[in-house]
Amino acid sequence: MKGAWQSIRKRAVLIALVAAGIALLPVAATLGATVYGIGVPASLLIAMLQAFAVAAVVIRPWVAVVTMMLGVVGTTLLVAPTATAPWPVPVATMLAVAITLAGLAVVKRWTFTATVWAVVVGWTLGVTALRPSHPAVPGAVAADLIVFAGVALLSLVVGVAVGRWSDTRRQLDDQRSATAREVERRELVEERARIARELHDVVAHGMSAIQVQAASARYRLPDLTEDAAREFDDVAHRARTAMTDMRHILDALRSDEADRAPQPGVADLPALLASPAHGGELVVDDQWRDDPPRDPLVGLTVYRVVQESLSNVARHARGAAVTITLSREAPDIVVTVRNAPPPAGVRAGDGGGHGLRGMRERAALVGGALRAAPTDDGGFIVEARLPERTEGR
């Protein structure tokens, strides 16, 4: 949809420029032949060059520059001074140069466009200095040149501003697309992890029962032959191997980088807060500092809760102040992420993600609970209460 809208907008700009060139053609040709004394063929040719420059500036900027310059050269050399009409730059030529420079500034670097402006104005000043004096009132030539240079410069500035705005919008659209792809990828990973957990829960109980029964068969059934006992031992061994393999597959499904990097924990929180994508004030109470969580699963849960909360702040309240509090409230450890209201003018991102649900699942996995709600001042708070677990429990 976005690509279609950009295509429509580009076509609209091209149609507008072509229409401006077509409208300029008869005006420039007529004024050149009737007011400024240029021959009809020459006046028509100059008008066609100027109109083509206006129509083609976005799609063929170099060609537009050349044709515009030819039109300006022809106009300044052939236009005869009059007592009433602007001289040495007719109004039609002013419009052609202004539109061409504005379009050129949108598609080219501003330094290139400024150079073209300087060449056009410099040529006009040089030709005027060598032409006969103007028969009109004193100052008319200077006024015409000042208006010409000023209008052309203003068009250049407007074109540069529009070009910068377009570049910013394009970069913003690219960033939004990249963010959407990352959110989609993360949701896919979360879904795979959920399926892996369900698969583990369904299969592990049955495999454990098979392994226990097979391993204890030679002790529970004294009448077993030695061959039958060895078969039961082989079944128990295969069951243990299958459970180990299943745990490895589960670990791989939990993270794309599970086989390349260790799982993060509480000690990795400062590095998380120091990254450009996140940020916030970390507050740790004395009891937590003296006795941090030792269970790696709890540490991983704390890290993921803080990470996902900071991602939600960046998505929905970009620029808001964030405070992360780690404390102990026996018998639980408490992780609180609170953000202030977003700055004025910041628009919240699209909803519909699975961040809060994923954090609740992680808290429930270690026997804890998670609460998330808006605050009275317009901010948001996420609080996870996790039970103190003995490592390996």
Automatic annotation (TrEMBL):
<dbReference type="InterPro" id="IPR003594">
    <property type="entry name" value="HATPase_dom"/>
</dbReference>
<dbReference type="GO" id="GO:0016301">
    <property type="term" value="F:kinase activity"/>
</dbReference>
<keyword id="KW-0812">Transmembrane</keyword>
<dbReference type="InterPro" id="IPR036890">
    <property type="entry name" value="HATPase_C_sf"/>
</dbReference>
<keyword id="KW-0547">Nucleotide-binding</keyword>
<dbReference type="InterPro" id="IPR050482">
    <property type="entry name" value="Sensor_HK_TwoCompSys"/>
</dbReference>
<keyword id="KW-0902">Two-component regulatory system</keyword>
<feature type="transmembrane region" description="Helical">
    <location>
        <begin position="87"/>
        <end position="107"/>
    </location>
</feature>
<dbReference type="Pfam" id="PF07730">
    <property type="entry name" value="HisKA_3"/>
</dbReference>
<feature type="domain" description="Histidine kinase/HSP90-like ATPase">
    <location>
        <begin position="301"/>
        <end position="389"/>
    </location>
</feature>
<feature type="domain" description="Signal transduction histidine kinase subgroup 3 dimerisation and phosphoacceptor">
    <location>
        <begin position="191"/>
        <end position="256"/>
    </location>
</feature>
<keyword id="KW-0418">Kinase</keyword>
<dbReference type="Pfam" id="PF02518">
    <property type="entry name" value="HATPase_c"/>
</dbReference>
<keyword id="KW-0067">ATP-binding</keyword>
<feature type="transmembrane region" description="Helical">
    <location>
        <begin position="35"/>
        <end position="55"/>
    </location>
</feature>
<keyword id="KW-0597">Phosphoprotein</keyword>
<keyword id="KW-0808">Transferase</keyword>
<keyword id="KW-1133">Transmembrane helix</keyword>
<feature type="transmembrane region" description="Helical">
    <location>
        <begin position="62"/>
        <end position="81"/>
    </location>
</feature>
<keyword id="KW-0472">Membrane</keyword>
<dbReference type="InterPro" id="IPR011712">
    <property type="entry name" value="Sig_transdc_His_kin_sub3_dim/P"/>
</dbReference>
<protein>
    <recommendedName>
        <fullName>histidine kinase</fullName>
        <ecNumber>2.7.13.3</ecNumber>
    </recommendedName>
</protein>
<feature type="transmembrane region" description="Helical">
    <location>
        <begin position="136"/>
        <end position="162"/>
    </location>
</feature>
<feature type="transmembrane region" description="Helical">
    <location>
        <begin position="114"/>
        <end position="130"/>
    </location>
</feature>
<feature type="transmembrane region" description="Helical">
    <location>
        <begin position="12"/>
        <end position="29"/>
    </location>
</feature>
